[in-house]
C-alpha cells in the first residue's frame, strides 16, 4: 500500500466517522447545507476585513474556514443518504446554497481589493463571480433541454480548491494567478457548454 492510498483510506474513514456521528444526531441535511453557507460567510468576512498589512494572515485564516465549510459540503448529502432523508427539495436547496457560497466568497474578495485600491482586481473578481454563476446556469439550463451537460472542467469543487489554495498561500502571491486562472477556465467551460448545447439542440423542434 502506498502512502497516498493509505492517506486516502484514512481520510475516507474520518469522513465516514463524521457522517456517522452527524447521522446519530438526526440533524436535517438541509441544516448542514445552510451551516456550510454560514461558515463561508465567516470566510468572506475575513477576506473583506483584510488590508495590505495583514492580508497574508487574514487570508490564511479564511482558507482554514473555507476548508471547514468544505467538510459540511461533503457530508450533507452523505448524511441524507445515511438517515434516508434524500429529497428532491434537498438537492435543489443544496444547489441554491452552493451559489450563495460562491458569491459570498467573491464578495469578500471584492471588498478586500476595493479597500486596498486595486481596481483591476475588483473588476477581475467581479468577472470571476459572473462566470462562476454562468458555469452553473449553463449546465442547469442545458440539462432542462437535453438531459445532461457535464462538459467543461471548472465545476464548483475545482473553484473551491483553487480559492482555498489562493487563500492559504496568499503570502506567496498565489491568489492573483488563481483569480486569472478561474477567469480563463470558467469562461472556457461556459463556452464549451454553449457549443455542446447548440450541437445537441440544433436538430430539435423549437419549444412552443
UniProtKB/TrEMBL annotation:
GO terms for molecular function: phosphotransferase activity, for other substituted phosphate groups. The keyword Membrane applies. One of its GO terms (cellular component) is membrane. InterPro entries: CDP-OH_P_trans (IPR000462), CDP-OH_PTrfase_TM_dom (IPR043130), CDP_ALCOHOL_P_TRANSF_CS (IPR048254), CHOPT (IPR014472). GO terms for biological process: phospholipid biosynthetic process. It is found in: Membrane. It comes from the Bacteria. Signal peptide: none annotated. The keyword Transmembrane helix applies. The chain crosses the membrane at residues 31-52, 58-75, 119-140, 160-183. Belongs to the CDP-alcohol phosphatidyltransferase class-I family. PANTHER family: BB IN A BOXCAR, ISOFORM C (PTHR10414:SF37), ETHANOLAMINEPHOSPHOTRANSFERASE (PTHR10414). This is CDP-alcohol phosphatidyltransferase family protein. It comes from Candidatus Sulfuritelmatomonas gaucii.
Amino acid at each position: 500500500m502506498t502512502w497516498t492510498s493509505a492517506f486516502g483510506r484514512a481520510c475516507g474513514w474520518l469522513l465516514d466517522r463524521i457522517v456517522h456521528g452527524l447521522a446519530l444526531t438526526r440533524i436535517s441535511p438541509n441544516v448542514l447545507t445552510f451551516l456550510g453557507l454560514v461558515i463561508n460567510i465567516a470566510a468572506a468576512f475575513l477576506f473583506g476585513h483584510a488590508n495590505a498589512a495583514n492580508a497574508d494572515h487574514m487570508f490564511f485564516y479564511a482558507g482554514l474556514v473555507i476548508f471547514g465549510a468544505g467538510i459540511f459540503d461533503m457530508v450533507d448529502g452523505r448524511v441524507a443518504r445515511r438517515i434516508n432523508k434524500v429529497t428532491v427539495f434537498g438537492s435543489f436547496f443544496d444547489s441554491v446554497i452552493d451559489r450563495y457560497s460562491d458569491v459570498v466568497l467573491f464578495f469578500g474578495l471584492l471588498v478586500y481589493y476595493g479597500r486596498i485600491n486595486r481596481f483591476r482586481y475588483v473588476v477581475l473578481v467581479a468577472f470571476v463571480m459572473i462566470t462562476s454563476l454562468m458555469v452553473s446556469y449553463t449546465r442547469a439550463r442545458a440539462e432542462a433541454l437535453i438531459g445532461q451537460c457535464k462538459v467543461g472542467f471548472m465545476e464548483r469543487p475545482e473553484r473551491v480548491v483553487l480559492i482555498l489554495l489562493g487563500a492559504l498561500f496568499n503570502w506567496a502571491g498565489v491568489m492573483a494567478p488563481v483569480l486569472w486562472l478561474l477567469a480563463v477556465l470558467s469562461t472556457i467551460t461556459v463556452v464549451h457548454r454553449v457549443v455542446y448545447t447548440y450541437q445537441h439542440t440544433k436538430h430539435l423542434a423549437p419549444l412552443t
